[in-house]
From TrEMBL:
Name of this chain's protein: Transcriptional regulator
InterPro entries attached to this UniProt entry: DMSP_lyase, RmlC-like_jellyroll, RmlC_Cupin_sf
Species lineage: Bacteria, Pseudomonadati, Pseudomonadota, Alphaproteobacteria, Hyphomicrobiales
A Gene Ontology molecular function term of the record: dimethylpropiothetin dethiomethylase activity
Domain of life, source organism: Bacteria
């Protein structure tokens, strides 16, 4: 086992949970309860095949910005960035989401089937979205929490207007709720969690 990576990943999970525990918002109690139930011991640890994506060119800027919000969390993210397996949903094409979307979008699991710990029907991960992007309305059975670590992202729920959410906001999407995200001048880095019913992927509306 890569002990340094194990230590860094555990620090990322525990720092994220501590950061969330210090906040108030819809869904937080459920997320914290589910995270506390996950096995993040050495027996559950494994190393996914690392995979990068074009959107990662924005990661240094995002991590720098996240340092202002939560320096321990930002440094924990930086310490595992070369080990993350970044993904894209196969159904998310530029035809559907706009030219250049696939070069400006990606997510990585920390806990989950593609992450460092398999989790028990829970996903914890990072999402990146480049500037000037519209991740349009989608939905999934899993209840979802987003914690944007950067400023200047706009969020819509249930087809409502897009509202700018500050760095560190707690954004909750109940099961099957429609939701969408827009970025403007700056890229977005967010921590996210699916608390249950994780087998069914997100579906564009
Ligand atoms: Fe979602």
């Amino acid at each position: 086992m890569n002990q340094d990576l194990f230590d860094n990943v555990r620090r990322l999970v525990t720092t994220a949970a501590a950061g969330l525990a210090a906040r108030r918002g819809e869904g937080l109690a459920e997320v914290l309860e589910r995270l506390a139930q996950q096995d993040i011991g050495p027996g559950a640890f494994r190393e996914p095949e690392p995979r990068s994506l074009p959107v990662l060119r924005h990661l240094p800027q995002c991590v720098g910005e996240a340092m202002v919000l939560d320096p321990r969390l930002a440094s924990a993210i930086a310490s595992v960035e070369d080990a993350l397996q970044w993904q894209q949903s196969a159904s998310y094409t530029d035809d559907l989401l706009g030219a250049g979307f696939s070069e400006n979008y990606g997510w990585a699991e920390i806990i989950g089937p593609r992450g460092f710990f398999p989790g028990d029907d829970v996903l914890l991960g990072l999402l990146m979205l480049g500037p000037e992007r519209h991740y349009r309305d989608h939905y999934h059975p899993a209840p979802e929490l987003y914690w944007p670590l950067t400023a200047g992202s706009f969020w819509s729920r249930d087809g409502g207007p897009f509202v700018e959410q500050p760095q560190g906001a707690i954004i909750w999407h109940p099961s099957m709720a429609l939701h969408a995200t827009i970025t403007r001048a700056t890229p977005l880095l967010a921590l996210w969690c699916w608390t249950r019913d994780t087998a069914t992927p997100a579906q564009l509306a």
